[in-house]
Specification:
Helices cover about 50% and strands about 15% of the residues.
């Protein structure tokens, strides 16, 4: 929106803290919240509670002193025309009450500018590279990969909306032991298909897709290396197609094999040796990762001169920075949690700031059907694939559901619920709000213009809907700060609920022309925000349902 009121309030609080000799307070301590109950204001700060221990004063006393200074600064700022009241409440919360003028201006801006009126340029064109999914091409994508794909793509959408220059990357581990086992699995299945009696090793890939690759491989050479390359290429084609059908696109597909052949691994390790961050011990080369907060030093070159997994990752991340990205974001599965500190240490050893790398662990997802959780094992092929989920519930439900829990929380995906056309199904509930609004606007004889008298909107449900509309940019800020799109799905459900409650209580098309225009303007703004939120999720917003 034109005025980012949170930023302006934070600025006023900062100046007030400085006046009271508390200018050293960090930005994290200036976090603003949205009270669940409008009786406690439209925006709230708990800064007084945070400062109580530091100042040896009660939070209420600090809040009261701050409010005096805040009011002085607000009188000198553009905010003065929007703040109705500033109060101390409860144990020391500072609550800001916005006036009618602010709400009216913001609703009009949404109507006149559409989704452009919701944008905040937080990034100043900062370049971001998000690397996600990056599943080894050893089998079709599982629901765990699908969740990473949804979260990564939605996060990229949100950051783009906030002004970042975002690129998406898939890092392809297309060499190594697992690729060799894949080739041998196909080779053995081909022999089996040709009538040979085969004892299939337990640690080989056993899914039905291996038989399909074996059948198609009969036209290729029967060397083990050829089987590996053919199988990995075949599976990669499937992965590309599935991700495309899921609405997930990548700007780059980066190959570990090409990275190794380029000599960049040797160059990166050479740099670390030159900087004194590698040392030799017991015939192996170690990274001094403990100097950067890791719990122990890490081997990068083994005593047999082969690389550990960390060596190509060091070179890969150096190469990312050399492509002039300011911020790297990696989405990993929970099995990589122990790998975080060593990579952060490597990035700092290369000379880059710790905060320039964000690593997000995306927890696993479980698929339920008929009340039963379905087992997942890539090797045995006993898992639900992304393709099966798409075929059963469609792209919209899949993308919405995969983002419906915090990335740090396990996700239970109920296929039966995702297919319901009732309010129990969150994605249907939100889409239905959009379709319902489109139907009303289509039947209206009056235009929903920005000149409507929005001061006529005084009913409780109208005001609650307006307040919920104006929380959109605040929610996107949360998604940005946490690097997690989960709150957007929560917000859209709450916005849909606020609309449905309003519509169930009040007619939009009334005999009062001015009131009708005001309500049409309100639901028109609601439609813009719902559509914008669904666009960011990569979910459609149908006009009829």
């Amino acid at each position: 929106m034109k005025k980012n009121i949170q930023d302006l309030l934070v600025s006023a609080i900062k100046r007030s803290l400085k006046d009271l000799g508390l200018g050293s307070v960090t930005p994290q301590d200036l976090y603003l919240d949205l009270p669940a109950d409008s009786r406690f204001g439209d925006i709230s700060s708990n800064i007084a509670l945070r400062l109580s221990k530091l100042t040896q004063k009660s939070p209420v006393q600090i809040a009261q002193e701050l409010i005096v200074k805040i009011k002085e600064h607000l009188e000198k700022s553009p905010l003065r025309v929007y703040i109705k009241e500033v109060k101390c409440a409860g144990a020391g919360f500072i609550n800001f009450y916005l006036n009618e003028r602010y709400f009216c201006e913001q609703v009009r801006e949404i109507i006149s500018r559409g989704s452009a009126g919701l944008k905040l340029n937080l990034a100043k064109r900062k370049r971001v590279l998000i690397e996600f999914v990056s599943a080894n091409p050893t089998g079709p994508l599982s629901v765990a990969h699908a969740r990473q794909a949804a979260v990564g793509d939605i996060l990229a959408n949100i950051l783009e909306f906030l002004g970042f220059r975002v690129k998406r990357e898939y890092y392809l581990n297309d060499e190594g032991n697992q690729i060799q086992i894949l080739g041998k699995s196909v080779e053995l299945r081909l022999k089996e298909l040709n009538g040979e009696k085969i004892e299939f090793p337990e640690n080989y890939y056993q899914g039905e897709y291996i038989y399909e690759i074996a059948k198609r491989s009969q036209v290729t050479s029967h060397k083990s290396q050829d089987f590996s390359e053919f199988a990995a290429g075949y599976i990669l084609d499937i992965i590309r197609k599935e991700l495309g059908d899921f609405g997930v696109r990548f700007d780059y597909w980066s190959s570990q094999k090409k990275l190794r052949k380029s000599g960049k691994i040797e160059k990166a390790l050479g740099l670390l040796k030159k900087k004194g961050f590698l040392y030799e011990q017991d015939g192996a080369w170690w990274l001094k990762s403990t100097q950067f907060g890791d719990d122990k030093d890490r081997v990068v070159i083994k005593s047999d001169k082969s690389y550990t997994y960390l060596a190509p990752d060091i070179a890969y991340h150096q190469e990312k920075y050399q492509r002039r990205f300011d911020w790297l974001i990696n989405l990993w599965g929970p099995d990589h949690h122990g790998y975080i500190n060593r990579l952060r240490a490597a990035v700092q050893a290369l000379g880059y700031k710790q905060e320039s790398l964000s690593i997000i662990i995306v927890q696993l997802a479980s698929i339920f059907r008929e009340g039963k959780s379905l087992e997942m094992s890539t090797r045995k092929g006993q898992y639900i694939t992304l393709r099966e989920v798409l075929d059963e519930v469609g792209v919209d439900a899949a993308r919405f559901y995969f983002a419906m829990r915090r990335t740090s929380s396990h996700l239970d995906f109920d296929l039966a619920l995702a297919k319901k056309h009732t309010s129990e199904n969150p994605v249907y509930y939100v889409q239905y709000a959009h379709a319902r609004i489109c139907s009303i606007l289509g039947n209206a004889k009056l235009a929903a213009g920005k000149c409507a008298d929005l001061t006529l909107l005084k009913e409780k449900q109208e005001l609650e809907l307006i307040r919920k509309l104006l929380q959109f940019t605040y929610i996107l800020n949360i998604c940005y700060n946490t690097q997690d799109p989960y709150m957007l799905t929560v917000y859209l459900q709450e916005l849909a609920e606020a609309f449905h409650k309003f519509y169930d209580q009040h007619r939009v098309l009334t005999e009062d022309e001015n009131l009708t225009k005001a309500r049409l303007a309100l639901i028109s703004a609601t439609r813009v925000v719902v559509a914008c939120g669904l666009d960011l999720l990569g979910v459609s917003h149908p006009e009829k349902m």
